[in-house]
Every structure is written in C-alpha cells, then in structure tokens.
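Usage

Read records sequentially. Each one opens with the input sequence:
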Amino acid sequence: MKLLEDKVAIVTGSARGIGLATAERLLEQGARVVITDIDKDAAEEAAGRLDSETVVFAGDLTKEGAPETLVETAIESWGKLDILVNNAGYTLDAPAHKLSDDWWQRMLDIHVTVPFRITRAAAPFLREPAKEERDRGEEVFRKVVNVSSISGTMGNAGQANYAAGKSAVVGLTKTLAKEWGQLKINVNAVAFGWIETRLTAAKVSDNTMEIDGERVQLGIPESMLSAAPMVVPVGRPGTPFEAAGGVLFLCSPWSDFVHGQVLNVTGGQISGMTS
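and closes with the structure output:
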C-alpha cells in the first residue's frame, strides 16, 4: 500500500516548479491531486503529463470566490479533502523605500490572504469528518502545509513585501496548529531557501508571468546566480524535487506528531540571498 493511498490533495501553484514536483510526489504515493494554477494551459499540460488521477482548477486565487470554488472542485471530484498545500506565489522585488502600495498589497494578497481563504473554505471538509472520528474514538490525521521562505523567517534585502507575507504565513500556521490540533489536523509550514525555480532563475526578458493582464518580471540578477556556493553550504541551489521532499514529509504519516512547525529546506542556508 502506498503512503498516501486514497488521500485527496489540493496543491496550489502546481503547474510548474515546486508545486508541480509536490504534485508528482503526492501522486507517486497514491494521492489524488487537484492541479491548480493561474495559467490554465500550463495546468492542463501538467495534468496531462502526470498521467495520474488529477483534476484541474485554473484561476486567480486572489479573486472573490476562487478559494471556495477550488475546494469545491476537490469535493465534487472525490467527495473529501485530506491534504492542502498552499504553495502558489510569486515575487515583486524592490527596496522598501521604493515599494508601491500596489506591490506591497499584492504580496500580502497571494502569500497570506489566499492561504487563509483557501484554508477557511476547506475547514468544514477537514474539521467535520475529524469531529465524527473523534467521537467514535478514531484517530485519522489530515494535513495543511503552508509554504513560507527564509525571506520570511530571516528577511531578505529587496523583498520587504514578500518577506512580510511569508512571515505572516508562519503566524497563520502556528495559530491554526493551536486551534486544530485536537482534531488531528497537522498544520505546518516549510521554509525554502534557494531553490531552482522561475523565481530564482535569471531576470531576463522572457522570464515573466501574467497577472491581471500585466506582465510581471520574475528572477534575480544574473550577477547573483554565481553566489550559490558561497550562500548555500551544500554548494548549490536545491531542485524542485528536493524541495518537494520536505512537503511530502509533512503530508505523510511520518509527520503525525509534527505540528505547528516550520521545516527549513535550505541546504544549510541561514540568510537571504543578498545578505
């Protein structure tokens, strides 16, 4: 029997990068997964490549009603929800004194408000079955994993907005852990360091994404890319597959007594990429 046999999972931002690698790892262990992304074509392409039991939800999770519709997709498809991975996000980098209100709010919206709203929408489908199991004397664990960053736990120059959002995710995680622990709903976070994704690739003209019809530049200056051996003790950035291993652990029965924690997946990195 596979580790996550018969489990139903939502992984946001799962058409690419860490989200896609997480979906792959959960599927390999027997889960059924809602592939979620703002880019419908990318989400459908990812689901097609995975060739496993998936459904697709495509949409901007910051929009009114989207979190609820996402959760409904899982329930309508498979009748339950066991695992929620709040992974979707991107960066808008600038020094604090040059940050606009819009860029500040966008980071709080996607990194804090969206995980909160999705988790709130999922609450009845996580909590109510758990109450019934508790009354019967059964112990069944469900999982919520929020993606943070060492930018949120340690700060990072040029990312006051992103760091604030990822720091808030930690507070949300620890609060939910205190509220939901009695129902055997493990709530944890994973804080990533330098992982090879679009967000840490070179900041070049074609490394962009579209939000509300606007092209958003992703990546970091090419001059920083050679710094990995100095910043990461293991000598290189991590891969999405390696990053997803930390998420898989927090979604698995191995983490049933791990609760309200922040798992650092950083290759030993203990500071931001620019400090």
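Summary fields computed downstream for this record:
- The first helix runs from residue 17 to 28.
- The chain has a mean pLDDT of 90.
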